């Protein structure tokens, strides 16, 4: 269901992007998967976060954020991002990364990641690679390549929070 929404939103070639290699085969962060449904139970939007590592330091990766094309521009994506970032802070996460439109993510406090010493392996537009401190000062001293989080066993919980 979510994969179908992602295909409609981004196309099937989305799986060739760098961020997919970081999360391939891993479960989303427990408690940080959100959906919006319509009145008939129709999936309208989805947001998940994934565990990553920066030179051994834990961080989370936001995305993909997907909104059914006919519902885009109505604020559902922004509401999911705000809700997700609030939940991530409550869980104690310190740094959040995203590859996305800078104008879309700047209002949440995301800033360019590359000038802060963070490197995303593989092809990526450096302007779209961004970081957000969920805890003030969390980026201090953290530099390096973004890597897959250590493999963990998937939990039995659902993707819906």
Q: Which structural traits does this protein have?
A:
single chain, 161 residues, alpha+beta, Aminopeptidase, 8-stranded mixed β-sheet, 8 strands, 21% helix, 29% strand, globular
Explain what you see.
- The protein has 161 residues and is α+β, with helices and mostly antiparallel strands.
- Helix content is 21%, strand content 29%.
- It has a single domain (2-148), classed as Aminopeptidase (3-Layer(aba) Sandwich).
- Strands 1, 2, 3, 4, 5, 6, 7 and 8 form an 8-stranded mixed sheet that branches.
- Strand 1 and strand 2 form a beta hairpin.
- The model is unreliable at 152-161 (pLDDT under 50).
Compose a concise summary of this entry.
The protein is α+β, with helices and mostly antiparallel strands and 161 residues long. It is built from four helices and eight strands; from the N terminus they run ααβββαβαββββ. The chain has a single domain, classed as Aminopeptidase (3-Layer(aba) Sandwich), CATH 3.40.630.30.
Beta-strand content bin: 25-35%
Distance between the termini: 16 Å
Largest beta-sheet details? 8 strands, mixed
Give the number of domains: 1
Helix count, per DSSP? 4
Radius of gyration: 15 Å
| Fold-level CATH name | Aminopeptidase
Q: Ranges with pLDDT <50 over ≥5 residues?
A: 152-161
Summarize the topology:
Elements: H1 2-10, H2 18-23, E1 33-37, E2 43-54, E3 57-67, H3 76-90, E4 95-99, H4 102-105, E5 111-112, E6 118-119, E7 129-133, E8 144-148
Parallel strand pairs: 3-4, 6-8
Antiparallel strand pairs: 1-2, 2-3, 2-8, 4-7, 5-7
């Amino acid at each position: 269901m979510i994969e179908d929404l992602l295909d409609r939103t981004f196309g099937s070639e989305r799986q060739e992007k760098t961020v997919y290699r970081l999360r391939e085969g891993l479960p989303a962060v427990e408690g940080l998967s959100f959906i919006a449904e319509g009145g008939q139970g129709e999936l309208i939007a989805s947001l998940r976060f994934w565990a990553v590592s920066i030179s051994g330091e834990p961080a989370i990766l936001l995305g993909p954020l997907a909104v059914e094309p006919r519902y885009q521009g109505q604020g559902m994506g922004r509401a999911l991002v705000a809700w997700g970032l609030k939940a991530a802070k409550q869980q104690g996460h310190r740094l959040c990364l995203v590859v996305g439109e800078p104008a879309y993510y700047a209002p949440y406090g995301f800033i360019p990641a590359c000038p802060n010493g963070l490197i995303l392996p593989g092809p990526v537009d450096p302007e779209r690679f961004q970081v957000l401190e969920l805890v003030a000062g969390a980026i201090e001293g953290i530099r390096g390549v973004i890597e897959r989080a250590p493999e963990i066993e998937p939990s039995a919980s659902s993707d819906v929070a």
